[in-house]
Write a structure and sequence with these properties.
By secondary structure, this protein is α+β, with helices and mostly antiparallel strands. It is 45% helix and 15% strand. The structure holds zinc ion (3 copies). One zinc ion (ZN) binds next to loops.
């Protein structure tokens, strides 16, 4: 989905929930959409938003992120550094996407397919637990780092 279309859809979602999209909130949202793959922290979002809208304060950015989280437009995630990061939920996705965290280079890849349908069934049947969402981060070595390891001769 392109950024303009995504922004339009999110605006409708906010409007339906009774939230006004002020220019400052819109600037925050735009930063999230433009950096969809980046898993930015509140601080990083603030700095990028400030470039678009120099008047914005950190508190406004925090408040906007809280609203977007409540409305399930974004999800809060954290990886190895423990910092809260904000991640746009994929349009139409029922459950949160998965992450592949590389322990060598720190890169984070996303898997959009759920892949857990069978696991969810087991959880529901064996534990009588109704699954509404999940967080899954795989820790390991990404394909690029594996390649690098193979081509770099090891020191004796
Ligand atoms: Zn993500
Ligand atoms: Zn699922
Ligand atoms: Zn890597």
């Amino acid at each position: 989905m392109n950024t303009t279309l995504a922004l339009k859809k999110t605006k409708e979602q906010l409007h339906d929930s009774g939230f006004k999209l002020t220019p400052q909130r819109e600037a925050t949202l735009l930063v999230l959409l433009e950096n969809e793959k980046d898993h930015l922290s509140a601080e990083e979002i603030y700095l990028l938003t400030k470039q678009k809208n120099p008047d914005i304060g950190l508190a406004t950015v925090y408040r906007t992120l809280e609203i977007l989280t409540e409305l399930k437009i974004v999800d809060k995630v954290s990886f190895n550094d423990g910092l809260a990061r904000y991640d746009l939920r994929k349009a139409g996705a029922k459950h949160f996407h998965h992450h592949l965290l590389c322990l060598e280079c720190g890169s984070i890849q996303e898997i959009e397919e759920d892949l857990l349908i069978d696991v969810e069934k087991v959880v529901e049947q064996q534990f009588g637990f109704q699954v509404s969402d999940h967080r899954l981060t795989f820790h390991g070595i990404c394909a690029a780092c594996q390649k690098k390891k193979k081509t770099t001769p090891t020191q004796p």
